[in-house]
């Protein structure tokens, strides 16, 4: 596989860490997590980390570039709020690496909230983001355009999402432009039918026989297969 930069972008509680870990393990690619960067700063500073978010993201991207310089593929697990997506893309282009952005989300707001609140109760020592904190964070989270990344809904079957991610990472086609869209929405569009959940929300062609949607500002639609399991 060509040297590749894979970024998992999404708000807390959307399943990006689980998918990133699975992909790293299966592909034997190093995994960098923003949580590890945050954990490296002293505890008394950690509670005031928000003003230094850009600096911590910069550290993460510096580590990414160091790996790509060596021709080593890398998977990155972070929120990727907006401009850092363009920075990641530029780093990939500078080192002739394939760029694979993956956006995770939960299509049902109530289920997402319940999962986040349960995680806070189950893992208090890890200090996971609270639902209230996520609501503040999402105000600054720029929406991904439908054809700018692989959209993965955490409510779909686990194996289906794993297969979609693995096929997307190893696909030959590449997404190059427009990954930092204007803030017109704060969350992905809701599916109105099973077909739109499997096809429209992903922003991709579901099967090779399908007609691809019109690309956005130079994007190439990536053809990937999804599982036949329902959910």
Keywords:
alpha/beta; 231 residues; disordered C terminus; globular
Provide structural commentary.
Helix 4 (53-69) packs parallel to helix 5 (83-94). The protein is built from 9 helices and 5 strands; from the N terminus they run E-H-E-H-H-H-E-H-E-H-H-E-H-H. The chain has helices spanning 16-27, 34-39, 43-46, 53-69, 83-94, 109-122, 131-138, 158-170, 194-200, and strands at 4-9, 31-33, 74-77, 98-105, 150-153. By secondary structure, the chain is of the alpha/beta class. Helices cover 40% and strands 11% of the residues.
What's the arrangement of secondary structure elements?
Blueprint: E1 4-9, H1 16-27, E2 31-33, H2 34-39, H3 43-46, H4 53-69, E3 74-77, H5 83-94, E4 98-105, H6 109-122, H7 131-138, E5 150-153, H8 158-170, H9 194-200
Parallel strand pairs: 1-3, 1-4, 2-3, 4-5
Based on helices, strands and strand pairing, what is the structural class?
Answer: alpha/beta
Distance between the termini: 31 Å
- Percent range of helical residues: 40-55%
Give the strand content: 5-15%
Oligomer: single chain
Helix and strand succession? Answer: EHEHHHEHEHHEHH
Q: List the uncertain runs.
A: 180-231
Report the total helices: 9
Q: Work out the number of β strands.
A: 5
Which geometry do the CA atoms define?
Answer: globular
What is the strand arrangement across the widest sheet? 2-3-1-4-5
Main sheet specs: 5 strands, parallel
Q: What is the rounded Rg?
A: 17 Å
Mean pLDDT: 77
């Amino acid at each position: 596989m060509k040297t590749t930069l894979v970024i998992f972008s999404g708000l807390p509680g959307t399943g990006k860490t689980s998918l990133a870990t699975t992909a790293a393990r299966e592909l034997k690619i190093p995994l960098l997590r923003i949580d590890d960067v945050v954990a490296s700063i002293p505890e008394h500073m950690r509670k005031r980390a928000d003003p230094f978010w850009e600096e911590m993201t910069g550290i993460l991207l510096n580590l990414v570039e160091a790996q790509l310089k060596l021709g080593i593929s890398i998977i990155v697990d972070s929120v990727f709020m907006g401009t850092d997506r363009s920075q990641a893309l530029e780093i990939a282009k500078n080192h002739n690496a394939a760029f694979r952005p993956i956006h995770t989300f939960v299509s049902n707001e109530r289920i997402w909230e319940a999962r986040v609140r349960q995680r806070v109760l189950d893992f208090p020592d890890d200090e996971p983001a609270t639902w209230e904190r996520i609501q503040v964070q999402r105000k600054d989270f720029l929406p991904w355009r439908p054809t700018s990344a692989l959209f993965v809904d955490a409510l779909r079957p686990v194996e289906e999402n794993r297969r979609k991610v693995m096929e997307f990472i190893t696909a030959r086609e590449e997404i190059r432009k427009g990954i930092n869209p204007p803030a017109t929405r704060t969350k992905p569009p809701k599916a109105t039918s099973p077909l739109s959940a499997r096809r429209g929300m992903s922003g991709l062609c579901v099967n090779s026989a399908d007609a691809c949607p019109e690309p956005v500002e130079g994007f190439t639609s990536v053809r990937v297969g999804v599982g036949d399991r329902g959910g």
